[in-house]
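Session log. Operator J.P. requested a structure for one protein chain; no other inputs attached. Running the standard single-chain path with token output.
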Amino acid sequence: MALLNEANITREDKERNSVHTEVRAAYTVFEEGGKKYFQLDPYGKATRQQPEK
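Structure written below.
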């Protein structure tokens, strides 16, 4: 898990790009300590050795 904010997200222009495989994900929105958070939980491919990890 990672906590991101505008200070630690930067744009990166790459020479080679690829579209990643579609996976299942879930999200939640909650408040903690007076701050509002959006949490995105993507799950791995079903074909992985440990599916959805």
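Operator note: The longest strand covers residues 25-32.
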